[in-house]
Specification:
Bound molecules: D-xylitol-5-phosphate, zinc ion
Largest sheet: 8 strands, parallel
CATH superfamily: Aldolase class I
Distance between the termini: 13 Å
Structural class: alpha/beta
CATH class: Alpha Beta
Length: about 240
């Protein structure tokens, strides 16, 4: 059955002096999520948004937050972020993503259990070099898998060619396990690359610069959505 892709604009590329305005803009344009990039300056070489800002964003947004944690100690810090999300209109539809590379062995399951216990949806992200096979023990616990199509840390980077093949590998892994988590792709997604990942099985597309650096961000968001849906539909018909 055809399901339209959802766009998750990354506010890392928004105007931080006018976050409320920019979030209203993407909500009106039909965004599915507000993608919030949390970076700690250790896991990635950049520092961005922390708990106090997330708390404000949760109260402000009318659509679910999609919180991408690029931090070294997810197990220690998860409770703070989960607490901040309790102020959202519907915490149960918010997604919290931890990186597979920051957690070892049973810690991955511990992290997703902690997220679920707070009533949120749990996702695991893979850096470009991390193979989907690391998800095998945990795939049936996940609401979403995030495939990074750039090295995490900065917006405005170029899509790493071949990331769409990795999306297909995640689809195959999930199929084998008999589950169907959402698949999100993050990094360098725009009108050229959205069709590649959408036809390979991506459900949620993160867009930073492709939306917020455009002259008309609302139109840019809708155009990415349109070309991705067309590719997804065509892939279904094959
Ligand atoms: C990168 C972040 C991305 C980034 C996307 O580490 O996780 O969400 O903001 O920005 P674009 O779409 O410009 O690559
Ligand atoms: Zn991100």
């Amino acid at each position: 059955m055809f399901e339209p892709v959802r766009i998750a604009p990354s506010i890392l590329s928004a105007d931080f002096m006018n976050l409320g305005r920019d979030i209203a803009l993407i909500e009106d344009a039909g965004a599915g999520f507000v993608h919030v990039d949390v970076m700690d300056g250790h896991f990635v070489p950049n520092l961005t948004i922390g708990v106090p800002v997330l708390k404000q964003l949760a109260k402000l947004a009318h659509i679910p937050l999609d919180v991408h944690l690029m931090i070294d100690n997810p197990l220690r810090e998860l409770p703070w972020f989960l607490d901040a999300l309790q102020g959202a209109a519907d915490p149960g539809s918010c997604i919290v993503t931890v990186h597979a590379e920051a957690l070892y062995g049973p810690q991955l399951k511990e992290a997703t259990d902690t997220i679920h216990a707070a009533g949120c949806k749990a996702a695991v992200a893979l850096k470009p070099c991390t193979p989907p096979a690391v998800l095998a023990p945990i795939i049936s616990d996940l609401d979403m898998v995030l495939v990074m199509s750039v090295e995490p840390g900065f917006s405005g980077q170029s899509y790493i060619e071949g990331s769409d093949a990795k999306v297909a590998e995640v689809v195959a892994l999930a199929c084998e396990a008999g589950v169907r988590p959402l698949i999100q792709v993050d990094g360098g997604i725009g009108v050229r690359t959205a069709p590649l990942v959408a036809s390979s099985g991506a459900d949620v597309l993160v867009c930073g610069n492709a939306v917020f650096a455009a002259d008309d961000p609302a139109m840019a968001l809708q155009e990415v959505c349109r070309v991705a849906d067309r590719a997804r539909m065509a892939a279904l018909e094959v």
